[in-house]
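Blinded run. Sample ID left blank on purpose so nobody reads anything into the name before looking at the predicted structure. Input follows.
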Amino acid sequence: MKIDLSQLEPTIDAGTHGLTFWHDGTKVRFTYDAEENVTKTIRVNLGKQL
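Blinded prediction complete.
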């Protein structure tokens, strides 16, 4: 999957950006540093949405 990094969201930490998306009931968040390297990944399975 290719991710468009132009849609990154600013984060609380200076110099980082985040990207959040949903896939099959799972919320996924990537945090990137200034060089566009992934520094943190968070996945939360919320189950199927009704």
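Unblinding after everyone has recorded impressions. The chain has a mean pLDDT of 76.
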